[in-house]
Amino acid sequence: MSDTNTIISPENLIYKKTDVLLDNTMHYCPGCSHGTVHKLIAEVIDELGIQETTIGIAPVGCSVLAYNYIDIDWQEAAHGRAPALATAVKRLMPEKNVFSYQGDGDLAAIGTAETIHACNRGENIVMIFINNGIYGMTGGQMAPTTLPGMPASTCPAGRDVSHDGAPIKISELLAQLPGTCYVTRQAVHTAANVRKAKKAIRKAFENQQANKGTSLIEVVSTCNSGWKMSPVQANKWMEEHMFSYYPLGDLKDE
Amino acid sequence: MKELKLMKGNEAIAHAAIRYGVDGYFGYPITPQSEVMETLMAEKPWDTTGMVVLQAESEVASINMVYGGAGCGKRVMTSSSSPGVSLMQEGLTYLAGSELPCVVVNVVRGGPGLGTIQPAQSDYFQAVKGGGHGDYKLITLAPASVQEMADFVEDAFELAFKYRNPVMILSDGIIGQMMEKVELKEFKPRWTPEYIEENFPWATTGKKKGQERRIITSVELDPYVMEDFNYRLQAKYKACEENEVRYEKIMCDDAEYLLVAYGSSARICQKSVEIAREKGIKVGMLRPITLYPFPEKQLKDLAAQVKGILSVEMSAGQMIEDIKLAVECKIPVQHYGRLGGIIHSPGEVIEALEQKIIGG
Amino acid sequence: MKEEIIIAGFGGQGVLSMGKILAYSGVMQDMEVSWMPSYGPEMRGGTANVTVIISDDKISSPILHEYDTAIILNQQSMDKFEAHVKPGGTLIYDGNGITHHPTRKDITVYRIDATEEAARMRSVKTFNMIVLGGYLKVKPVVKIENVIKGLKKSLPERHHHLIPMNEKAINRGMEIIHEMEVEA
């Protein structure tokens, strides 16, 4: 009979949490994609050895407290303004690594202008975009990316495209801009997808170090609380509905 | 060596910023202050001092760029005029809530709405009473000459870093657009990363090994912690009120009547004092230089000496509320001022004084 | 000495730059100066005016309601500013396009047909320098040598070859300005 100490003895370890990810208990709901993406960012920062030179910009939304989980310097922005903060941080300290972390409401609704113009100027930053098609923090309201027919508390009968417009494919839009060098759409609901997403994040940071311009990583995500599903159902629903509207893969890689 | 130049107030702001060693300017064009960014772009300080100058997509973006830069311990600033400054109010309350130092210049024009591009002083309330949400204050300096436009850039940054709070230079279309002689100060080097590291441990410059991570934020979900933070902010403002009041008194020693005016209106009123004195009317003037903190005590003292006060502002009467609070209804206080971009003349001020205070 | 001047005319007549050169000339002889323009859409072809004050002492208000001298270069400005010349003050105007000539008898009125003269000199751009010359003839508030220095300060280097032409225009202005009898 083995006790816990035997299990975690060095010769038995096959996985180690990066030190860049703090031990604070995450406030995210079980099944939420944020935690996984945080972990991937922390691992990339660790692997690239850039913990001392990375500044993160947190949004308003569920990940408003992202700074509690990744052990780097952080600034918390007003709703939608993260790309403006990141612009100044990078321009004033070009030798640092700067990334913004935003949800769909932050990046694709209230902050659309800041997003588009930071990308259009080709700010040499990484933008992480969590698209779960709903406003999680405020309790499940319609997002700019909520799918047609998908219910939310401000469209209980489902999104009516004739009334609310179609969900915005902001990554496709941003890929059109000459300032972006890398625009990709990823997911983190399976081990294989997690591995791909991490590669993408790493590439984005490497692009920044090579002064290539703006890299945008959209992560199509679940919000099982907001969607009112179990985590397993949410993953399935995402595969069946989200991926057809938001297909995974690189939109641009220059 | 003393270097005298003839320039507009807006140009003086730009030159002073470069010479003082400002790290970044982020702005959006709007009349009557576009010369600030135009001058910076023509001077190309990125080639000399390394200053970053960037035209943002909106005033919302520019004030948030200021937030990002300020969070790194850099000396950053923006400038705009009334409608643009309204857009910046969100950023300003976040800056105050995150305790970040920065300088915002408002070259005020007449409103409300898109209003007029002509000068006004109708943004006093917005500047000194908050503007954005929450219990915060903007330290507000009111220049009355092109020289002060230049000098206050340095003063504003010093106050901003002393109190870790945004500072507004509340100017107007007259001071921004007029040309006067200016003596520009010597070039000072920008702060080095080492200096920032040493003096501003809160700045997000990259977390060193063994160091606590720095977090620039204004969010706090625990109301008790948030209350404590608010008390701390208020204590800071109290210290500012005790230490930073600036004002100018003109011919107050024997004054029987007092004009109170700031910025360009103070220049106009100074002429009114000259004309009134020639007519034998004993008028003096108090010019608040800091609008927040307001020279309350000085006004209270003067209220014991003069028979009445005329507050002269190019607004419907905003600063008058602070004057009334200061003098505690002990003497009559009246307002005079033209609106919507019309500038009152020195003669009109005297007429108003005669009708509303001396005759009233 | 203190001289409070309004220069008013059409945008494009060089009203603002004439004021600027005058202000610079004041700086050159270590006097206090202020230059306050009307700004905005007015600058683009409508009326333009600038208040210039040159003084031995510190200047209080850059905004005035009456002037020692009004230099008037179109009819709208005549209608607006004739009444604002101080009693005993000076009004200088270009007769081109003026239908209602000045009527005040308590001021000294000069006429300078600078538009006509500039056309004759085939140098329309020096129009404002002709006017400035005329003004300095009747109100020598700054020395001509300081005006030339002021010109050098306010003109970009690449335009410095135009200075002799401007100097010629100033001299011509001094010659052609003449006092008017105001008719009742």
TrEMBL record, chain A:
InterPro entries: 2-oxoacid:Fd_oxidoreductase (IPR051457), THDP-binding (IPR029061), TPP_enzyme_TPP-bd (IPR011766). Residues 67-219 form the Thiamine pyrophosphate enzyme TPP-binding domain. GO terms for molecular function: oxidoreductase activity, acting on the aldehyde or oxo group of donors, iron-sulfur protein as acceptor; thiamine pyrophosphate binding. The keyword Methyltransferase does not apply. One of its GO terms (biological process) is cellular respiration. Keywords: Oxidoreductase. It comes from the Bacteria. Pfam families: TPP_enzyme_C (PF02775). This is Thiamine pyrophosphate-dependent enzyme. It comes from Plebeiibacterium marinum.
Automatic annotation (TrEMBL), chain B:
Keywords: Oxidoreductase. Residues 15-211 form the Pyruvate flavodoxin/ferredoxin oxidoreductase pyrimidine binding domain. Pfam families: PFOR_II, POR_N. It comes from the Bacteria. One of its GO terms (molecular function) is oxidoreductase activity. InterPro entries: 2-oxoacid_oxidoreductase, PFOR_II, Pyrv_Fd/Flavodoxin_OxRdtase_N, THDP-binding, Transketo_C/PFOR_II. Residues 255-348 form the Pyruvate:ferredoxin oxidoreductase core domain. This is 3-methyl-2-oxobutanoate dehydrogenase subunit VorB. It comes from Plebeiibacterium marinum. The lineage of its organism: Bacteria, Pseudomonadati, Bacteroidota, Bacteroidia, Marinilabiliales.
UniProtKB/TrEMBL annotation, chain C:
Residues 11-175 form the Pyruvate/ketoisovalerate oxidoreductase catalytic domain. This is 2-oxoacid:acceptor oxidoreductase family protein. It comes from Plebeiibacterium marinum. The keyword Membrane does not apply. One of its GO terms (molecular function) is oxidoreductase activity, acting on the aldehyde or oxo group of donors. InterPro entries: 2-oxoglutarate_synth_KorC (IPR052554), Pyrv/ketoisovalerate_OxRed_cat (IPR019752), Pyrv_flavodox_OxRed_cen (IPR002869). SUPFAM superfamilies: Pyruvate-ferredoxin oxidoreductase, PFOR, domain III. Keywords: Oxidoreductase. The lineage of its organism: Bacteria, Pseudomonadati, Bacteroidota, Bacteroidia, Marinilabiliales.
